[in-house]
Amino acid sequence: MRLDSSWRKDFPEQRASLQIGDLVSQGSSWGYPVRFGGIQFSSRFELAPDFIPFSLPVFHGETSLPATAEIYTNTQKLAQLDVAPGPFDILGLSPLQAGQGELQLVVRDLLGRQQVIYQPYYITPRLLQPGTSEFSYGFGAIRKSYGFESNHYGQLMASAFRRTGISPGFTYEWQIEASPHQQTIGAGGAWLLPYFESIFPRVINSSLAVSHGNDGQGAQLILGMEKQQRSGNFSAQIGFSSRNFTQAGMLSNFRTKNTGMISIGIPLLRQWVNIGYIQRSSWQNDQQWQLSLASNIRINNVTQLGISILHGNTGTTVLAGLNFILDSRTTITTDTLREGSKQQTAVQLQKSMPMDNGTGYRPAIRDATRPAFHGKTRMPHCRVTLLAAMASPVTRLLPAAGCHTPATGCLHPEKSMKALPSSIPARSAI
User: Fold this and answer.
1) Which superkingdom is the protein from (predicted)?
2) Could you tell me which residue, 417 or 347, shows the higher pLDDT?
3) What's 126's DSSP letter?
4) Percent helix, strand and coil across the chain, each to the nearest 5
5) Domain coordinates of the chain in residue numbers?
6) Residue 150 main-chain phi, psi, to 5 deg
7) Residue 197 — pLDDT band, cuts 50, 70, 90?
8) Best CA proximity match to 190, nearest among 124, 245, 276
9) Does the structure show a pLDDT above 60 at 396?
10) CA separation for the pair 257, 220 (Å, rounded)
11) pTM
């Protein structure tokens, strides 16, 4: 059975790519990822490995004489540079860990005089650098019965999404979706709040979307907040939807009424333990909830153990897996999934594509009876990538809703909350 086939042309100068074939739509914080067959032009920051899209801290200072500036974080020296007399700005500091921290700037002039400046910072993927944009524009037919049928496509769909950094502390986004029976438009933003030595959140986000469908008009409001620091991470989000709100990828038999999500990360014995709770109710008076506990444990330089426990109104799922690094491009992953009285075991070999021309592949087998294959190749002397994926029917590609393999961890909480009813990360109408 065919899963995916696609062609991709990369444009490194624009940090973007053009894809044709079986694709997954990209969208805003409130949009569902949807499988479709068609064409998509989207940003691709990884084409420029030295480019950092999110907002970084900026130092402002002034010196009357030529001086040397040294920058530290957690006693680690990040950079040293010479500054000319007068006011100066230091920007583009890297590498820095995501979350909250403090920078120390030490300025020494020719007379040996020294001044020390302390500046807190906060780095999050929610905030893009001013002038930097993440975008995706797509058109095609929605994929149906993915994992069950090779070539089943439904109604046409067009989508457009863009997220742009306006200032170091504000990033806005908008998204438009349109199909014959559904049209949705929405906008939102993320704001950096002032620094406080407390549990007060550092970033808040909100979005508002309106829709038109066969049942009439609807609206959705989402509010969220986050704080990341060395002592722990915290994020929360709530959402409210009217009865007739609709969007691409939404299940017709589950009209969301309200959602809630809390995620906490705690450092424990040099490892991170992540605890999450997700709840969603529908206008059909159905409720879904899920409590999760996950951690990745580094055994040595080449071996990592991942453990995830999910418990909800549909039962309990336990996933444990080992990831072995064979070389810079090759890994072997084995995992065992247990849901109630059912147990599945899978083994996967993955060889990533090289930075230039070459081939990558990912064969996998589950329960010794359900093989799957995913392959990519980049053609010589051009930025073109071909992708193909196949599997036996009803092969469960992911172990549980909202989670990848143990080596990569769970999806972002926002996406996990929306993926509860499905066992695949991107929606395809069935």
Assistant:
1) Bacteria
2) 347
3) T
4) 5, 65, 35
5) 59-123, 167-418
6) -80, -40
7) low
8) 124
9) no
10) 9
11) 0.80
pLDDT in tens, 71-95: 888 778 888 889 889 888 887 776 6
Q: Which residues contact 86 (CB under 8 A, 6 or more apart)?
A: 62, 63
The encoded tokens of residue 155 equal 């109604």
Type of residue at 300: N
In terms of C-beta density within 10 A (0-12 exposed, 13-18 middle, 19 or more buried), how is residue 165 classed?
Answer: buried
Q: What span, in angstroms and rounded, lies between the C-alpha atoms of 244 and 255?
A: 8
Q: What is the pLDDT of residues 239-291, one digit of tens each?
A: 999 999 999 888 777 788 999 999 999 988 878 899 999 999 999 888 999 99
Please answer whether residues 273 and 253 qualify as being in contact, where contact means their C-beta atoms are separated by less than 8 angstroms. Answer: no
Q: Which ranges constitute the DSSP H helices of 94-168?
A: none
| Separation in Å, CA 45 to CA 54, 124, 227 | 11, 16, 24
The amino acid occupying position 358 is G
Q: How many residues does the chain have?
A: 430
Residue entry with tokens 């002032």? 194
Q: Which CATH code of 2.30.30.220, 2.60.40.3110, 1.10.1660.10, 1.10.3720.10 fits the domain covering 59-123?
A: 2.60.40.3110
3-state secondary structure of 415: helix
326's tokens: 């064979």
Output the six-digit token pair for 242. Answer: 């009217």
Residues 263, 410: Cα–Cα separation, whole Å? 11
Torsion, Cα 36 37 40 42, to 10 degrees, reads 50
Query: Residue 33: how many CA atoms within 13 Å on its side-chain side?
Result: 16
